């Protein structure tokens, strides 16, 4: 009899939370501090070509965003759907190279500045080394994206965050993979005087055993590794050709498949 095999997140979990914040404003310091207190991971999309007093100094990036992800937001934040494609490509590549020099690792994500993009830009991004890109808007759901280059979040933090967070925490059907993805700008908390909103949300969703706390690129990389697993026709054996460990649920039992391993299920 064929076994029922499900893909799981690391540790055999079925829920993942990721946060996504743009522009690198000074309020990122407070936001990172909140995330760190509750064990939550964020992705911060930065414009390396903008130097202003209200922005985090580039020399602070490496220390401040340690344990989180730094991602592209183009070099100077133009509305790229109106720009010639060569200019868009230079905006992305310059931002990538600047951020990589500062952070010391490959930068492979993007959020579209002003939410602006086109099909031509989407099609060009893989050649620029960009593996995912976040669009503007909310799904108000917890599904995985069909296309990581047009990745829409669950919600902006001002759009039913606490209600959706409570719903996410209470999801219990392990036959599904659930993702909650929150986006915004840290300066909005100062402008609207509602920092307590993020404090309450992180207190509610942080430190839970059934949630994987991940950056955007960690989700992309993990799901790619999961999709590379090679199963026998009866799904009674599996080979993991990746370096990264992948977790499965096999007839309701959690199974760890280390990188390079060939296992009987």
Give a written overview of the molecule.
By secondary structure, the protein is α/β, with parallel strands linked by helices. The strands form four sheets. Strands 2, 3, 4, 8, 9 and 10 form a six-stranded parallel β-sheet that branches. 30% of the residues lie in helices and 24% in strands. The protein starts with a strand and ends with a strand. It has helices spanning 28-38, 61-64, 85-103, 119-124, 161-170, 187-192, 195-205, 216-227, and strands at residues 5-8, 15-22, 42-46, 69-72, 109-111, 132-138, 151-153, 155-156, 178-184, 211-213, 230-231, 237-239, 246-250, 253-257, 262-264.
Q: What's the structural blueprint in terms of helices and strands?
A:
Blueprint: E1 5-8, E2 15-22, H1 28-38, E3 42-46, H2 61-64, E4 69-72, H3 85-103, E5 109-111, H4 119-124, E6 132-138, E7 151-153, E8 155-156, H5 161-170, E9 178-184, H6 187-192, H7 195-205, E10 211-213, H8 216-227, E11 230-231, E12 237-239, E13 246-250, E14 253-257, E15 262-264
Parallel strand pairs: 2-3, 2-9, 2-10, 3-4, 5-6, 6-7, 8-9
Antiparallel strand pairs: 1-13, 11-12, 12-15, 13-14
Main β-sheet description: 6 strands, parallel
The low-pLDDT segments are none
- In terms of DSSP E residues, the strand content is 15-25%
Mean pLDDT comes to 97
* Rg, alpha carbons: 19 Å
């Amino acid at each position: 009899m064929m076994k029922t095999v499900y893909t799981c997140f690391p540790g055999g979990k079925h829920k993942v939370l990721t946060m996504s914040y743009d522009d690198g404003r000074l309020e990122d310091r407070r936001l990172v501090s909140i995330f760190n207190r509750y064990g939550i991971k964020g992705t911060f999309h930065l414009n390396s070509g903008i130097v202003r007093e209200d922005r985090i100094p580039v020399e602070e990036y490496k220390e401040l965003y340690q344990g989180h992800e730094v991602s592209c937001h183009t070099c100077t934040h133009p509305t790229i759907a109106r720009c010639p494609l060569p200019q868009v490509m230079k905006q992305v590549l310059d931002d990538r190279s600047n951020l990589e020099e500062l952070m010391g690792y490959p930068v492979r994500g993007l959020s579209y500045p002003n939410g602006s993009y086109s099909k031509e830009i989407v099609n060009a991004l893989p050649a620029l080394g960009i593996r995912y890109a976040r669009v503007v808007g909310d799904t108000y759901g917890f599904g995985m994206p069909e296309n990581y280059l047009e990745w829409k979040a669950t919600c902006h933090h001002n759009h039913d965050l606490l209600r959706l967070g409570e719903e996410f925490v209470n999801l219990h059907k392990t036959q599904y993979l659930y993702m909650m993805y929150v986006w915004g700008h840290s300066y909005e908390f100062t402008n609207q005087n509602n920092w307590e909103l993020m404090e309450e949300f992180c207190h509610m969703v942080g430190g839970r055993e059934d949630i994987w706390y991940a950056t955007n690129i960690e989700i992309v990389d993990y799901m790619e590794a999961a999709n590379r697993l090679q199963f026998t026709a009866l799904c009674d054996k599996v080979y993991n050709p990746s370096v990264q460990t992948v977790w499965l649920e096999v007839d309701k039992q959690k199974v760890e498949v280390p990188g390079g391993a060939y296992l009987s299920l």
